[in-house]
Structures are given as structure tokens and as C-alpha cells.
Design brief:
- The structure is a single chain.
- The chain is mainly α.
- A three-stranded parallel beta sheet has the order 1-2-3, with helices on both faces.
- Helix 2 links the parallel strand 1 and strand 2.
- Helix 6 packs across helix 9.
- The longest helix is centred in the last third of the chain and has 15 residues.
């Protein structure tokens, strides 16, 4: 890997996939490391608050690993099974340019996970929030919604607040309009 990077005009300042000994990140643009739970945490701690971007190589490309890596702010994920000199250099150049690099199949799985687990947007509303929105659309006020659903007024206010936050709306009317337009109610 070091020879490949040097031939592509990268300056290699050290070699240690497991970050032992601990690398000095001063003046370092990219830190490439082998993904493993403790190694990921160590790399994140090392780069925390600094300009060094992280790139992880991965043996086992599980969805859990991809989520952990992305949540940690790693700029590129490089699976061993598809790693070639060309993909290595292209990925590191992308990270240096400020973008991220991830194989398409990983990106598809990650996006699918995000859309399925997202709590934002109209499709992320739970049944209670949808019920409150329907009653808002029918013109009921807080007391009327509370009576209809057998909730306290405080609960209704909390649910309305959650709906406004999830839909990024300022008013109840705007939330009803968004939900109606998206076909949620």
C-alpha cells in the first residue's frame, strides 16, 4: 500500500494498520487504518478536532461496520475484497478534495438503512403522531384532540411539538399541509 501511494505522489509518513505505535498527526492530511472496533475508536480520538481525515480499510463489510464507520465521520471505506491500487488512490484523492468515497453497494445499503430508520420527514411519523395530525386537519384544538384520543392536553402538546420538529414546520397548519401533500393523512 505504501509503495502504491508513493508512486502516486503521496507522502507516506508511517505504516501501522492498527495505529500502534500511536501516529503523530501533526501536518497529516489522511490517516489510513484497518477497521476494528478499538482501532476505529482510537483513530477517531486521535483525529478529534484536527484537520486529519480518516480512511478505513475493512475486511468484513457488514452493515453494522459501515454504520459505525460512517457515524464516526470516516471519509472513505475501502473493502479489502475490492481494493486495488486505482481505487485506493482515487479514494484518497477524493478524501483530500473534501468528499467521501464508498463503494456503491455499501452506499446503497447505508441509504436503505437510513431511510428505513429515519425519524424525520412525513414517513417517519408514528401512529400517534399521524392520529394527532388527522385531528388537527379536522380542525380540532388541543383540548378536542385530547378528549378524542383520551390523552392529556400536555401529551397532545408534546406530540404536536414532535410532529412540528420532525416535519421541520413552524405552525400546526403548515404541518397539516405538509402531511396532506405527502399523502400521510
Amino acid at each position: 500500500m505504501a509503495a502504491c501511494l508513493q508512486s502516486a505522489d503521496f507522502v507516506v509518513r508511517g505504516e501501522s494498520a492498527t495505529l500502534a505505535p500511536v501516529p503523530v498527526l501533526t501536518g497529516l492530511d489522511i490517516l489510513v487504518f484497518e477497521y476494528a472496533g478499538p482501532t476505529l475508536r482510537r483513530a477517531v480520538r486521535l483525529a478529534d478536532g484536527g484537520p486529519t481525515r480518516l480512511v478505513a480499510t475493512v475486511r468484513d463489510v457488514s452493515e453494522q461496520a459501515v454504520r459505525e464507520i460512517v457515524d464516526a465521520g470516516v471519509g472513505a471505506v475501502l473493502p479489502h475484497t475490492t481494493l486495488t491500487p486505482e481505487t485506493l488512490v482515487a479514494s484518497l484523492r477524493a478524501v483530500v478534495a473534501g468528499t467521501v468515497a464508498m463503494p456503491a453497494d455499501m452506499l446503497n445499503r447505508l441509504l436503505l438503512h437510513v431511510t428505513q430508520t429515519s425519524h424525520f420527514g412525513p414517513t417517519g411519523l408514528n401512529p400517534r403522531e399521524r392520529s394527532v395530525l388527522r385531528l388537527l386537519a379536522d380542525g380540532l384544538d388541543t383540548r378536542g384532540i385530547a378528549e378524542d384520543l383520551c390523552f392529556s392536553e400536555r401529551t397532545v402538546k408534546n406530540v404536536v411539538h414532535d410532529v412540528l420538529t420532525k416535519l421541520n414546520c413552524r405552525t400546526r397548519a403548515q404541518a397539516v399541509a405538509v402531511a396532506t401533500r405527502e399523502g400521510v393523512i
